[in-house]
Specification:
The protein contains eleven helices and ten strands. The protein has 297 residues and is α/β, with parallel strands linked by helices. It folds into two domains: 178 residues, NAD(P)-binding Rossmann-like Domain (Rossmann fold), CATH 3.40.50; 98 residues, N-(1-d-carboxylethyl)-l-norvaline Dehydrogenase, domain 2 (Orthogonal Bundle), CATH 1.10.1040.10. The protein binds acetoacetyl-coenzyme A (CAA). The site of acetoacetyl-coenzyme A (CAA) has 14 residues, from helix 7 and helix 9.
Length: 297
C-alpha cells in the first residue's frame, strides 16, 4: 500500500513535529486542531522552524515554500477522509483518545492505516474503539521529532503484517529508524527511561546528590545529551508522572511509582520547561537554575 496523504490529529509539541517531518519528506500533511487559533499557532511554529532551516542553509527557499504548501490545518475531522495514514498526537488521556478513535472510525477510508503516537496508553484498547483492529498500530515518535531518529512501531495481537511493513517503510522514508515492540505499557524506551528518571528523583530526595551533580554525572559519566532532571523537565513533569502512573498500574512494581517530590511539583504547577519551572527555573533560559540551590525541595 502507498502512503500519499497523512493526517495528524493534534498540533502541539509532538503533532507539529510529526507534521513538519511528514511534509518535509514529500507527503501531503493535514493537521487537525480543536480551534482555529490552535491551528494557526501550530502552523506558525512549524513555519518558524522551517524558516530557521532555510536561514541555516539546510533547505533552499524553494524547498521551504514547497514543504509549506504540503501542509494544511483544519478543525474538521472529515478533512481526513482521503488520508492513507492517520496519526493521533492528542493529549495523553485514555478517554479523549478512545472518543477520538470512535469518532474517526466512520470518517476514515477503509484501507487507511490508523496509528497512535501515545507514549504509554494501550494501543489494543484504542484499536478496539474502531471497527478495523488489523489496520491499527502504534507509531511512537520522540521529542524533538525533527531531531530524534527513532520511531517505535507497536504491534498488537491483531495488527496485520502488511500494515507493520507499510509503517516501517514510511518511517524509513522519514529518515528515521524503526524498532518493533509489542503493546505493553511504555513499550521499550519509556519502560526503561521512566524508572531511570524516577530513580534519579529518589536519590535526589534521599540526599545522594544535588540536581546539578546528578545531571552532570549522567551527562559526563554516560555521555547522555541531558541529565535526568533536565530531561524530565524537557519531557514535562506532568507527562513523566502520568506515564509512571500507567506503568505502575500495569506492572504493580514500586520502581514505577511516581515519587512524592514529582507529584508535588506537578500539583504546584511546576511542569518543567513548558511552565517555566520544574527541577530547574527557566527564568533565564540561557542559564537554568536548579531548585535545590534554594535549599527547598
Ligand atoms: N525542534 C526542532 N529542532 C530542534 C529542537 C526542536 N524542538 N530543539 C533542538 N533542535 C535542533 C537544533 O536546531 C539543532 O540543529 P542543528 O544541529 O541543525 O543546528 C540541534 O537540534 C541541536 O540543538 P541545540 O544546539 O540547540 O541544543 P543541543 O545540542 O543541546 O540539543 C537536544 C538539544 C536535541 C534536545 C538534545 O539535548 C537531546 O538530544 N536531548 C535528549 C532528548 C531526548 O532524550 N528526547 C527523548 C525524550 S523521551 C520521549 O520523547 C518519549 C516520551 O514518550 C516521553
Amino acid at each position: 500500500m502507498e502512503i500519499h496523504q497523512v493526517g495528524i490529529i493534534g498540533c502541539g509539541q509532538m503533532g507539529s513535529g510529526i507534521a513538519q517531518v511528514v511534509a518535509f519528506h514529500g507527503y501531503q500533511a493535514i493537521v487537525i486542531e480543536a480551534t482555529e487559533d490552535l491551528c494557526q499557532r501550530g502552523i506558525r511554529g512549524i513555519h518558524q522552524r522551517l524558516d530557521k532551516l532555510e536561514q541555516k542553509g539546510s533547505i533552499s527557499g524553494d524547498q521551504n515554500a514547497a514543504i509549506k504548501n504540503r501542509l494544511r490545518a483544519s478543525t474538521d475531522l472529515s478533512q481526513l477522509s482521503a488520508c492513507d495514514l492517520v496519526i493521533d498526537a492528542i493529549i495523553e488521556n485514555r478517554e479523549a483518545k478512545l472518543h477520538l478513535w470512535k469518532s474517526l472510525d466512520p470518517i476514515l477510508k477503509r484501507d487507511a492505516i490508523l496509528a497512535s503516537n501515545t507514549s504509554s496508553l494501550s494501543i489494543t484498547e484504542m484499536m478496539m474503539a474502531t471497527s478495523r483492529p488489523a489496520r491499527f498500530l502504534g507509531l511512537h515518535f520522540f521529542n524533538p521529532v525533527p531531531v530524534m531518529t527513532l520511531v517505535e512501531i507497536v504491534r498488537t495481537i491483531a495488527t496485520s503484517p502488511e500494515v507493520i511493513q507499510t509503517a516501517a517503510d514510511f518511517v524509513g522514508r522519514l529518515g528515521k529508524t524503526p524498532v518493533f515492540t509489542s503493546d505493553r505499557a511504555g513499550f521499550i524506551v519509556n519502560r526503561i527511561l521512566i524508572p531511570y528518571l524516577l530513580d534519579s528523583i529518589r536519590i535526589l530526595e534521599n540526599g545522594t546528590g544535588t540536581i546539578s551533580d546528578i545531571d552532570r554525572a549522567m551527562k559526563l559519566g554516560c555521555s547522555h545529551p541531558m541529565g535526568p532532571f533536565a530531561l524530565a523537565d524537557f519531557i514535562g513533569l506532568d507527562t513523566t508522572a502520568a506515564i509512571a502512573e500507567i506503568l505502575f498500574e500495569e506492572f504493580r512494581e514500586p520502581r514505577f511509582a511516581p515519587p512524592g517530590l514529582l507529584k508535588r511539583l506537578v500539583t504546584a504547577g511546576r511542569l518543567g520547561r513548558k511552565s517555566g519551572k520544574g527541577f530547574y527555573d527557566y527564568s533565564d533560559p540561557a542559564s537554568p537554575k536548579p531548585m535545590d540551590e534554594s535549599g527547598r525541595i
